[in-house]
């Protein structure tokens, strides 16, 4: 399992490397993109995942001790925590969709000025317009960030959002696989597969995977959500 | 269980009696051993017994059949390309057909043939036997990885059949994102899935080598093929996920029409190349290392000598696996990457030549004063050493930043990597196939035809690719269907060579198939080799070893014939005419 | 067939009992504390230092998670080697790729 996790580390390593490269190029755009995300849901999700890592360690212990009720309880708790995470995640994606923060090729026209200060009509993507709205609604520093940005920079925030969707999307996929494994372990537990000090290794190995999913989130959280500027007043679901 | 270090006591007097330094060269004319009555081929029947098998040997055969088909498909695509290049304005293909033909050739040969061929077939078949195990560490996972691989390959073939692919095997955006009208998604999915299979196989082999070794099979006694497979597996595990990520990001871009490699929103297409070559440069070592492993087995057998510098060869495999990760930027010297980084990569590229050269020198030293015989596998090995050395040395021209500016993307590059991939890997694969065919099937193929095939391949190959060094050096760029008329002579020579080569590759299909029906029984050890795999019947029984083998010395003890012959006394004769008790077989039975 | 049944020993025999409830709880509390810290950092404006500070916190969290929850502290040498290899190769990937982005604007002559 550790060997398999090596491949997972490098899999996420690939996208993190790409992320780093662009963050070096476009620090401002990444900050703006992160500011537009929903920090409240992310924070709640962080704690949910950490708790689920905790419950699965307890499940290993119960399996080792042969406490069937405890084992089932902790497995169910882990599954519930994971599922709630996914529900929040879905809510978050829906929120982003409603705000129009989805990179696309759709274009629209806006009034702006060219380099010499002459008013012109410029073709920009719908995404950039939506981003401007979202940041301005957040007021304060978020608005200040938005005001300083040119339209070209707003376009580039799409790169941040491509990272946001692909990284969290892959993480969600891994979670779904993990939940499937957990359910399988639960069924095994129900069938009395685990006996004291025997076979608990199955849960232990599977827990490695689950912890790894948690580990990925631990890094996604500061890189995606906490890279921007958030203020407590504008927290919402 | 007897402790691993147990070896039969040899008193000085018995040694004097038993030591026989007459090297044993010619294969035995007759071999009294028939195939085992129950072997892995006949112990179960029917399609299902093959498709649901968890026997590593059967899975090896499951790889063999589609891989041969894929190789012939890739070969046909190559033939189309070569025919088209007969005239300066393209002989038979439209422009986009030409793109599709060379892409099909590259992708099939790399992803569906060179990468899985030796790990899939020989690795599966022989790694467990060589370490003295009954099967892989995870037999079911092994079957799963065959299904995953086959599914991925089918995706790939589907992509090529419905409309083809025109991106080149490298999938560079924006060729593969904005400007391609072909099935990049399907093909990408195919790459992703076959990559997953490659990871699973790698995991399995690593676990097998770590956990399944027979008593006495220390790391220092592992056959070098196992070492090479181990190093390959390490690369597979470390590199493949990054390719998977690169392809996923590319697929995202392709699906949504917008993505992180898209320069219009500030993306950098070069980033894809970084991620791609992080996998694909080590991938060339995934291709060549198993081949190098096979060479060790064959060259010791047919020069009747221990390998020269066992440790050096073993560690050079590991060295290649590590250093191979440090050089990927030499594919990108002229693509706009930082010039200083290019210099660093150029220097590091020189470094990777060291372990490769260590291997070549050790092989040549192994040949020195050996009792060399020229059976077909040995002919392939000699071809390998010559061609791979040329390929490796021309690689240095390309690795040096300055000369690469001139040679980049010319036929020189084509010739270079075909010398390593075809002249190296393809010949190593043929050597391995011919060496192990008697073990895998229990049948001996035609000596004459196999030697002829080796010579035909060597001649055809040289005629195809030597001219390309010349035309490439004069600046003929790769991948164009049209070319200036002054290059036509070289192109015609190449095409002629390709035709001869094609004949050479088809020949084994016929005589090996014929050997299944008309070949004589090979016997347990037709080459009188010393490896563990030759001490069991051909074809092997379903569980390889009837008794747990206990290994008492290294894999290439050709210089010490009969040392442990006391153990197998009834069969032993001092002049070694009896096929299976000769040449220090290194195996005793456990109790 | 002989009496010897060669059993694959894939998983190391693990004689150590799993972590105690108290130990797990402590680990969890540490992780949760660090997560609070990460959140706090997220809501303050530290300028360019922010990314480094929050990554440092994430690394500490990651180490705690792997060493205690994933039980790396009881792992054998091979497990450690595997974990270190993963980090090292990720480092290689970053090293060369990021070097490219940092040096691309320099011209040699």
How much helix is in the residues of chain B? 55-70%
CATH superfamily of chain A: Cytochrome c oxidase, subunit III, four-helix bundle
Which strand-content bin applies to the residues of chain B?
A: under 5%
Choose one word for the global shape of chain B.
globular
Distance between the termini of chain B: 7 Å
Average pLDDT reading of chain B: 85
What would you report as the Rg of chain B, rounded to the nearest angstrom?
Answer: 24 Å
Domain Cytochrome oxidase subunit I profile (chain B): 50-552
Membrane topology (chain B): Multi-pass membrane protein
GO molecular function (chain B): cytochrome-c oxidase activity; heme binding
Family (chain B): Belongs to the heme-copper respiratory oxidase family.
Describe the SSE topology.
The complex is a heterotrimer of chains A (237), B (591) and C (109).
Chain A: H1 2-25, H2 27-35, H3 39-65, H4 68-98, E1 107-113, E2 119-125, H5 126-137, H6 140-148, H7 151-190, H8 200-225
Helix pairs in contact in A: 1-2, 1-7, 2-7, 3-4, 3-8, 4-7, 5-6, 5-7, 7-8
Chain B: H1 12-18, H2 47-51, H3 56-84, H4 95-130, H5 139-161, H6 184-211, H7 224-256, H8 269-303, H9 310-323, H10 339-367, H11 376-399, H12 401-407, H13 411-441, H14 447-473, H15 488-518, E1 549-551, E2 587-589
Antiparallel strand pairs in B: 1-2
Helix pairs in contact in B: 3-4, 3-5, 3-15, 4-5, 4-6, 4-7, 4-8, 4-13, 5-6, 6-7, 7-8, 7-9, 8-10, 8-11, 8-13, 9-10, 10-11, 11-13, 11-14, 13-14, 14-15
Chain C: H1 21-43, H2 49-69, H3 77-103
Helix pairs in contact in C: 1-2
List keywords for this structure.
B: 591 residues; Cytochrome C Oxidase, Chain A; two-stranded antiparallel ribbon; 15 helices; 61% helix; globular; C: 109 residues; mainly alpha; 2 domains; 65% helix; flat; EC 1.9.3.1 (chain A); cytochrome-c oxidase activity (chain A); transmembrane (chain A); membrane (chain A); oxidoreductase activity (chain A)
Give an overview in words.
The complex is a heterotrimer of chains A (237), B (591) and C (109). With 237 residues, chain A is mainly alpha-helical. Chain A has eight helices and two strands. Chain B contains 15 helices and two strands. The radius of gyration of chain B is 24 Å and the shape is globular. Chain B has a two-stranded antiparallel ribbon with strand order 1-2. The model of chain B is unreliable at 1-32 and 562-591 (pLDDT under 50). Chain C folds into two domains: 21-70; 75-104. Chain C has three helices and no strands. The longest helix of chain C is centred in the last third of the chain and has 27 residues, at 77-103. In chain C, 26% of the residues are buried. At the A-C interface, α1, α3 and α8 of A face α1, α2 and α3 of C.
